[in-house]
Batch of 2 targets.
Target 1
Amino acid sequence: MFHRLEETLAGIFSKHLEKRYGWRNAVVFEQPRQPEFGELALPVAFQLARTLRRPPRAIADEIVREIGAIEGVAALEVAGAGYINIRFDRGRYARSLIEGLPPEECAVADGKIIVEHTNINPNKAAHIGHLRNAVLGDTFVRILRARGRRVEVQNYIDNTGVQVADVVVAFERLLGKTPEEVAAMTADPAVRFDYFCWDLYARISAHYREHPETLAWRQQALEAIERGEGETARMAAIVSDAIMRAHLATMWRLGIVYDVLPRESEILHLKFWAAAFELLRERGAIRYETEGKNAGCWVMPAAAFAGDDAGGEGGEDGKVIVRSNGTVTYVGKDIAYQLWKFGLLGKDFHYRPLLTYPNGHRVWVSSEAPGDEPAPEFGRGSRVYNVIDSRQSYLQDIVAAGLRALGFEKEAENSIHFAYEMVALSPRCAAELGFELDAEERRRAYVEVSGRKGLGVKADDLVDKLIEKALEEVVSRHPQEPPEKQRDIAAQIAVGALRYFMLKYTRNVVIAFDFQEALSFEGETGPYVQYAVVRARSIFRKLAERGESVPDYAAELDAGALERQLRSEDFWQLLLTASKTDAVLERAIAVGEPAHAAKYAFQLAQAFNNFYHEHPILAEPDRERRTFLLWLADYVRAQLERTLGVLGIPCPEYM
RNA sequence: GCGCCCGUAGCUCAGCCGGAUAGAGCAGCUGGCUUCGAACCAGCAGGCCGGGGGUUCGAAUCCCUCCGGGCGCGCCA
């Protein structure tokens, strides 16, 4: 509601200012900190003052006088040195909230948005860094969808890379396992396969460090896997497939699902790279070096991605895309994949359904040959968000530059690196995990997670810990409830705590992970917000227990009654905050910051908790007021539930 | 050397498309459960917004510069 009124007002002011003063800039309102200044403020008179060479106050007066009465607005006031403060008509505003709004016509540009996230190497269990990626990506997807965008979720599986090769080498050379034996392990419920590989990966990494000559094993395995034939390739498929499924299961615990899983193996075997290479070569985006240190390679000139003044010593050489031995680098494959996402490659995968989630959603995986079932159309996006940590920004720049060099300016512009900083471990956390830190590491604010060292917090371990802790609370508060139910509630609280924890930080700060903070259920946390919803619901449960039905708000509360009740500033501010959900979500999309939605949920919960505490609703003797309070509580509850849904945080029945 | 990120209360962080008195949470102290649930609420205390310069009627916010910390910059993925 707030969002729509704001847009309407922006339209009215924009039209007036353009006609009267030739003002062509966007009309941007601010929301004053002090409630006494109204709901929206417009500082445009300050900007006009310069060109008009008149005092801002006089201009503001003039605008207010000339623009006249506006529907839904109670008053326009000039304040301070020249602000135009806007006060909504409270009764009317609330009334339209009760009546509900006709559905918004989607003013959003059509076309599909692709969000790629998670992208975990399928060679070991997921850790908390991966969780940040997946939660950020999934929440952004939910925000986009809540605001009417069409979105496709991709999770790229690098099933032929070095990391998989390393684990395969470990199985073959360190453990002497056959593909059949490994397959048996993946089917054995007693073996936690992704955890097993976590340790195994650390082992083979240590082995390489101690015996560098054995690195040849990796190269051999890599080549075998890329060819896709033989024992080693078979082993790689078994390992990566099992781990991929483990990752899907881990993410499902947090409510995270995907639409399609494009795999590296298909990118190779369906010759995506060959098609991309032809394009790049034809259009001169890469060139063959005949001398210098990159002799024999196909190279993207530095000028393409490093800016105009890229005269530095190192930058002049450009970025190798095809090695002198004829193989393509990682970034080259990435360019091909990015082209496919926009439908620019002239090639497509085949697909087959991989699995159906318990909620009925189906995820598809790329395949070399056509499947039995017709697949939905994937790819062909108009905008692509790559959720990848900020350490990859250099490579992401090169991918975008590749598109630009091919003449796909618009697509390069719509290739968005949705970057975030890493999740590291606080020194205390690393110590708790049993890792020895040297003096230097202990001095630091945080220690980097390292899969090769096996240093990190596994995602499932963290979720388990959260459930265990939540369960203690649930059991102590609701000892009579059946154990399965208690556990289910505890799991919902755990998900709430974890997702909120990952979302409360903005994307560009490093999270120094600490169990004490992550396991907190008090203060600015997911459970705090969930608790507000549970309390709100309990009012209505109590109402029903007393044999009363929910009043017919629309019949009992006319604009006059609403106006009377909303003279209370507390009620008005709560209602206003609750009505800002869509405005907040749009803002979160515009700046690409899911944290805004999380912060909003917390603020609304906080406002509600205050209200809840101060105003016993069911005990209210005055009928109009009681009905109003019920409506307000109901409206806030609905908005909170919706926001939690967007954050992927479940609302438990009780807690 | 070049590029990106961070520096705001004891700690962890919001606020940064310039705007009116800089906000939360945690920790600390004080008070509040016979009421719709205390995973809560209220209050107190806590700030040269890293330093300096500039732009502006106005700077935590934009520009420059310096300092401190982190991450990148391979024919690795």
Note: Residues 526-647 of chain A form a domain with the Isoleucyl-tRNA Synthetase; Domain 1 fold (CATH 1.10.730.10).
Target 2
Amino acid sequence: MIHPPTWHADARQPGNHAMSVRTRFAPSPTGFLHIGGARTALFNYLFARHHGGTYLLRIEDTDRQRSTPEAVQQILDSLAWLGLSPDEPPVFQASRETRHAEVARALLARGSAYLAYDTPEELAAQREAAEAAKRPFKYDGSRWQGLDPKDAPSVAPAIRIKAPREGETVVEDLVQGTVRVANGELDDMIILRSDGTPTYLHAVVVDDHDMAITHVIRGDDHLTNTFRQCMVYDAMGWSRPRFAHIPLIHGADGAKLSKRHGAVGALEFREQGFLPEAVCNYLMRLGWGHGDEEVIPRERAIALFDLDGVGRAASRMDYAKLLHLNGVYLRGSDDDRLTRDVLERLGRHVVSFGTLGADRVRALMPVLKERAKTLEELAASAAFAVIEGPPPLEAKAAALLTPEAKARLADLAQFLTDAPWERADLESWLRDYAEVKGLKLGQVAQPLRVALTGSTQSPPIDAVLWALGRTEAMDRILAAAEG
RNA sequence: GUCCCCAUCGUCUAGAGGCCUAGGACACCAGCCUUUCACGUUGGUAACACGGGUUCGAAUCCCGUUGGGGACGCCA
């Protein structure tokens, strides 16, 4: 019967450092790290930090067919980008197979497990028969138990753990609450395959135990597996960790999150111009809340986060809200950092530029970042500043360059020749010009904007004028006036 | 099919029996600001899945229904 081990309570006593919190994120390197996994990592990180504990990473690479070194690197890169790198070097599960086998044999020696000589084909047939008869398949290994090795078939055996038949298993889940299942539902699962490799359900338990994990925080999809894992803990006489099963993230339509919903890989968000702090903030708020707080930077998140605030229902990915949050973080970001990123993106988009262009982008950054939601948008909006010479004209912008507008620009160029080149001065010169000519400021600003940026949308025109510098600005105005 | 979990505006959530005429955020609509686009700001539309209990009183507790999700591998 299952009661939380007493040290769990002790661990929460202030002043008890003997059993500090240890969490782990345990992805399998069979693909890229998706957004759901990223959130699981985040919760593990936040929980450990909040309690002054340790946050670890274990790569579950026991499936040798599907695990790849590229995927491992991808996961590491993703976590690094999100600021969720582990406190210690990652543990590779495959490297611990000797230990897994050792525990399996210990279970055998204790009489808690037995050798099962079924072939995969036999099992598949049994499963099919059960399905055909519309009854749930439950493995029956009674014929192998207590078998004299001499009578064993000449088949490499797997090791199966004996499931309890009576009573029920109870898990006090930190998120889901008390969850119980009748032991009659469990069956004798394989812990060591016939080829000597461990199964996931077994390896996880051995590793979590050996790594002294105190809190297993993972996706909801592992909830029912937890009862199977309990069999190993209990049979070995190990105290179980605390479990916390967090709900999954779904796509906007409520179905399992997949590529057709948009970006799902953590690194895809980076490519699309999202900031890691915005992604983390968004992910944290998905399934967790603290009153009305929405913008919660890392430090604040660590201070606030705890598992009791995690909801039990699955939530849907809302890209619009992420986008909004990204805008918030973008506006609050350091100008030098943004400039660096934008220049890099522009370079990738095959725009060549010199230091003059780079300086202009930096000068414009405070007003540029006000009007972008992603780094990609930011880069696009900075493109006019980085190039030399007249910018390419957008269709809508070109339409604005009427003969009158061109004449106006020529006149304006003349007028600006003697202007002092400071932003505030430029603004008042433009206002004066409009007033003298009996025009609304917009009538002057729009043609000018088109000439300088090639677009009908840009930061305030005085800022653009100033950042471009007198020479470059004059070039562009004249080019537009003559073109 | 069996077992497990879940259920407040379109979405993320606040809500731990009276503070709820159900609050906030995103999105959407309208207005203001304005030099374009954003930002900002003001207001608006919009939810307790359904049915039974328990209680003086239920979004909050219990049961059922419906609807979602997950797990049932010599995958992880």
Note: Chain A is about 50% helix and 10% strand.
